[in-house]
Amino acid sequence: MYTHLRRFFTIALVASACVFNVPATADEPVQHEAEKAVQDINEKEHKIEHKLEESEAKFDIGEMIMHHIADSHEWEMTHGVVIPLPVILYSADRGIEVFSSSNFHNDHHEYNGYHLVHGDSEQVVPVDESRKIYDFSITKNVASMLLSAVILILVFTSIAGFYKNSKGKAPKGFQSAMEVIILFIRDDVVKPNVGPKYEKYLPYLLTLFFFILVNNILGLLPGSANLTGNIAVTLTLAVLTFIIVHLNANGNYYKHLVRPTGVPVPLLLIMIPVEIVGVFMKPFSLMVRLFANITAGHIILLSLFGLIFIFQSFMIAPVISLFALFLNFIEIMVAFIQAFIFTLLSSMYIGSAIEEHSHADHGH
Amino acid sequence: MSLLTPNPGLIFWMLVVFLLVVFILAKFAWKPIIKGLKDRENEIQGALDLAERTRAEMIQLKSDNEKLIAEANAIRDQILRDAKDAADRTIHESKDKAVIEAQKIMENAREAIRNEQELAVSKIRKEVATLSLEIAEKVLKRELKDKEAQETLIAELASSARLN
């Protein structure tokens, strides 16, 4: 991060020196002197850059942040406490291979003809580059997802038990805490946006909300995975919503795409592409919104913590900790808001696709 | 830019796990929870409706009761009035009758007294007549024994007759 800035300044300096140089070309000795000066400056800049790079080698905040945000083949709870996770590979010639990621802990990060590459994120690549492999490993994100799935199933089946066992009684304890959220999703998010046939979509939308919420909150815990800030996860959720919308959409919806009501014929040339782009923009925006919000939150928090390591001062740590605490509260809020928005928008898209009457003109 | 390239393996697991979670929760969690919530809402709605109905019935009953009480009061007043009238009439009649009776009795008594009186007077008269006759007879008998006495008497009588 710093390096880029330094490089930019160096280039700017050199460029300005060159610009300064141009009118002087006619004058030989002056030009020579100027060239020398430029060389001097360059050398000095190089030295500074070199020193900076040296000191950055100790703590690279960019690398630290990427390491925390990206997926991994092992679950690093804290420095040194690592849970190895299974690596599952499929290749046409070798079939399915399963082995522990701890096998990569050697000098070359190599095992059984595979190489673990540490880049922005980890990747298992075959040593023999002509081979093509598919990586279905239980990564840190997958493990976290499984954990959240277990939490969701345990919590909500036990709540369902309350409803079965204490029928006709007032809700109490955890049941009433969850009931408030379930009722909120049902009455204020799904019912008004999906319309009268909302009950068919309620299980999907409730699961969507709680899945995103639980994973957002799990992601805030120290040492946990950044699942909802992973584009593959938000992509899958957005595509599922897209599929549900378009499987259940009625004729009006599709007719509206190719023949928007109240649009003059010449404008159709523009409107039809716009409508079709809009169809794909909706899931795309769903995907990017959740991904960007959660990732941005994590980057901000990690940058704050990174500042402590950059300044290496006990004076700055409490201030930054306080600020990080404040941001953590905001992140908890964001966890709820993003889960809510994803569910709200999904139900709006479903609602607009299954709407019975086509309204004559609603201005798009 | 690995951040922006979705990992196919993760998409695969995400699909599998998420769809499993959706199906398991839909079957074992959302169905009973939503059913329980709906049942409870219906129960509460039913109880509210029942309370509303009961309230209406109570109001109806109350007005019926009031009507009944008013009717009963009216009937009671009527009965009381009738009874009072009857009593008044009876008292009046008996008073009149008593007065007439009393008058009749008084009349009879007066009649009887008059009759008795007349009888007594006539008896007394007769008695007085006989008595005076006897007295006169006796007096005459005694007076007429001597001559002198007869003469004085006559004189006396004559003088008194004169004075009158």
TrEMBL record, chain A:
Gene3D superfamilies: ATP synthase, F0 complex, subunit A (1.20.120.220)
Gene assigned in the entry: atpB
Cited function: Key component of the proton channel; it plays a direct role in the translocation of protons across the membrane.
CDD domains: ATP-synt_Fo_a_6
Main location group: membrane
Protein source organism: Dyadobacter arcticus
Recorded coiled-coil stretches: none
Entry's localization field: Cell membrane; Membrane
Annotated membrane topology: Multi-pass membrane protein
KW Signal (keyword) present: yes
Protein name: ATP synthase subunit a
Automatic annotation (TrEMBL), chain B:
Coiled-coil annotated spans: 37-119
Keywords: ATP synthesis, Cell membrane, CF(0), Coiled coil, Hydrogen ion transport, Ion transport, Membrane, Transmembrane, Transmembrane helix, Transport
Ribosomal protein among keywords: no
UniProt KW Glycoprotein keyword: no
Cellular location(s): Cell membrane; Endomembrane system
Segments crossing the lipid bilayer: 12-30
Cross-referenced NCBIfam families: ATP_synt_b
Family: Belongs to the ATPase B chain family.
Protein's recorded name: ATP synthase subunit b
Lineage: Bacteria, Pseudomonadati, Bacteroidota, Cytophagia, Cytophagales
Gene field: atpF
